[in-house]
Amino acid sequence: MKETSLDEFVTEKGQSEAARLLGVTPPAIYKAIAAGRHIRVIELPDGVFQASELRPFPSQPTKLQVA
What we know:
Helix content is 43%, strand content 21%. The chain is an alpha+beta fold. Helix 1 (6-13) packs across helix 2 (15-22) and helix 2 (15-22) packs across helix 3.
């Protein structure tokens, strides 16, 4: 299994092809990269691509974190 960042994946495949391989639209790819989201793309042994995002939990600030 090969793992790479979404940014590197798009550089390698192109935005349209990356979107097609991940089952999303090209604008979704653009927005994810522009927002600086931490998305990793994994190529599975059967050649299928899968993406996952690492983010804090909970992702929204709680009242305790804001105060």
